[in-house]
Amino acid sequence: MLKLLRPAVTRVLTPLGRALARRGISPDVVTAAGTLGTVAAALFFYPRGQLFAGTMVITFFVLADLLDGVMARMSGTGSTWGAFLDSTLDRLGDAGIFSGLAIWLVVSGQPVLAGVALFCLVAGALVSYIKARAEGLGMTCDVGLAERPERLVVGLVAAGLGGLGIPYVLAVGLWLLAAASAITVVQRLLHVRRQAVSAPSRPLRSSGER
User: Of the residues 57, 121, 185, 200, which has the fewest C-beta atoms closer than 10 A?
Assistant: First the structure.
């Protein structure tokens, strides 16, 4: 759903991306700065219960996730390393957001909801890992109810509205996000299994992961 909004957002960010590129700022620097800002804001504001302020600051830095791509396309500097760095730092940004929420929920006496926030973090990482591993094995895995943009929107909107004092919205948002993430994990596993069982058998080199 949110992929339909990407062209419009890209048009808005293009002038800023062009200005940064003219000053010699690389997309990788923008990626790293966006992640650092996201993590710092989440761990500073959320544990203090400043959910709305934190969400506004995080949203600003999350836009760097689109800006770096715009800059790479304009300057022709897109690379395998840049794609790898972007995906890796996305996981770090997600960890900062949901860890910050979990800390505040524990401090405010909501341990069950804190557990839900941590489940959202783990399930979101698993969703991304399944896709990366499938593509590394030569399969496709671009399916699922809740990809990263949807997960971010639901999580940040729920946190922001919760920070404005709207009752139950954070709990509802986190539970919905947990359910959607779990469904996406199952969807991707089934999608990969269908491809795997229909493909000719071939020896696979171990990834060396533990």
Answer: 200
